[in-house]
Design a protein that fits this description.
There is one protein chain. By secondary structure, the chain is an alpha/beta fold. It is globular. The longest helix is centred in the middle third of the chain and has 29 residues. The protein has one domain: NAD(P)-binding Rossmann-like Domain (Rossmann fold, 3-Layer(aba) Sandwich). It binds NADPH dihydro-nicotinamide-adenine-dinucleotide phosphate. The site of NADPH dihydro-nicotinamide-adenine-dinucleotide phosphate has 28 residues, from helix 1. InterPro entries: NAD(P)-bd_dom_sf, Sc_DH/Rdtase_CS, SDR_fam. Keywords: Oxidoreductase.
Length: 249
C-alpha cells in the first residue's frame, strides 16, 4: 500500500533512526512531522527533505516527549498543516546503561520518563483523532532489549519490555474496534548517537570493546523495516519486527 500523502509524526527525528525514517518515508511521498528538542537539527533535516524532488513535505515542531503540553503543540500544528494524523512513530529514547549497584537513579528516572511515559504521551495525544477517523497506525520503537538482558541494561531493558507489552495491549484494544494498527519495532545494535548517553565508566569500559568489531545495523535498515510495516494492506497488521545485526548473538 502506498504511503503517499499520509501524515506521519516522528518523535526523536533529530538523529539516528528517527532521522533516517523521516528521509525514507518522505521519499515515499509521506508528509512528515519532525519533532525532538534540537531545533537546528530538525530544520536541517526539513531542508534536506524539501530539497528533493517528489518527496513529501516536512513540518518542524520542537517538543519534549515527557511534556504533555508539548504534545498539544504537535497535534494542533499537525492538524493545522496537514488536516489529519495517519501515523505516529514513537521513537524518542535514551539508553544510559549502568549497573544497578552504581545507583544512577536520576538516569533510571529519565529512561522511565522518555522511553515509557514519552510513548504513552504520544499515544494519548493521537488517539482522539485516530479513533474518530477509525484508522491510523502507531509504531513504537522498542528494542531487542525487550527480549534479552544486556549488561547494565536492567532499567533500559525494563523500559523497552514495557513498550513491547504496551504495544500488544494497544493492538488488542484498538485494532479490531477502531482499525488502528500497532507495531513494535525491536532492533539489535544500530550505529547512532544512542550510546553517547552512557555515563557509567564501568559500562563504557565493557560495552565499547564488545561492539567495536561488530558490524552493526544502520539506521536506514530500521527505516526500511518501518516502511515495510506501513506499506501492508489494510487487512495485515505487522505486530512485531525483531531485527538483529547478522553478527550479533
Ligand atoms: P539517537 O540518540 O540518535 O536518537 C534519539 C532521539 O531521541 C534523538 O532524536 C533525541 O532528540 C530524541 N530524544 C531524546 N530525549 C527526548 C525528549 N525528552 N524529547 C524528545 N525527543 C527526545 O538514538 P537512536 O536513533 O538509536 O534511538 C531511537 C530509538 O531507537 C530509541 O527509542 C532507542 O531506544 C531505540 N533503539 C535503538 C537501538 C540502537 O542500537 N541504536 C536499538 C534498539 C532500539 P533531541 O536530543 O534533539 O531531543
Amino acid at each position: 500500500m502506498s504511503i503517499k500523502g499520509k501524515t506521519i509524526i516522528i518523535t526523536g527525528a533529530s538523529s539516528g533512526i528517527g532521522e533516517a525514517t523521516a528521509l525514507k518515508l518522505s521519499k515515499e511521498g509521506a508528509n512528515v512531522v519532525l519533532t525532538a528538542r534540537r531545533e537546528d537539527k530538525l530544520k536541517e533535516l526539513k531542508k534536506k527533505i524539501e530539497a528533493k524532488k517528489d518527496h513529501g513535505k516536512a513540518l518542524v515542531i520542537t517538543a519534549d516527549v515527557t511534556k504533555k503540553q508539548d504534545y498539544k503543540k504537535i497535534i494542533e500544528g499537525t492538524l493545522k498543516e496537514f488536516k489529519s494524523i495517519d501515523v505516529i512513530i514513537n521513537n524518542a529514547g535514551l539508553m544510559p546503561l549502568s549497573y544497578i549497584k552504581n545507583l544512577h537513579t536520576d538516569e533510571w528516572d529519565k529512561m522511565i520518563d522518555v522511553n515509557i511515559k514519552g510513548v504513552l504521551n504520544g499515544v494519548a495525544a493521537v488517539l482522539p483523532s485516530m479513533m474518530e477517523q477509525k484508522s491510523g497506525h502507531i509504531i513504537n520503537i522498542s528494542s531487542s532489549a525487550a527480549r534479552k538482558y544486556y549488561p547494565g541494561g536492567a532499567v533500559y531493558c525494563a523500559t523497552k519490555s514495557a513498550v513491547k507489552m504496551f504495544s500488544e495491549g494497544l493492538r488488542q484494544e484498538l485494532a479490531p474496534t477502531y482499525g488502528i494498527k500497532v507495531t513494535s519495532i525491536e532492533p539489535g545494535f544500530v550505529s547512532t548517537e544512542l550510546t553517547e548517553t552512557i555515563t557509567d565508566e564501568e559500562i563504557k569500559k565493557e560495552l565499547m570493546p564488545m561492539v567495536k568489531d561488530l558490524t552493526t545495523l544502520e539506521a536506514e535498515d530500521i527505516a526500511e523495516a518501518i516502511y515495510y510495516a506501513l506499506s501492508q494492506p489494510d487487512r495485515a497488521n505487522i505486530n512485531d519486527v525483531y531485527i538483529m545485526p547478522t553478527e550479533q548473538k
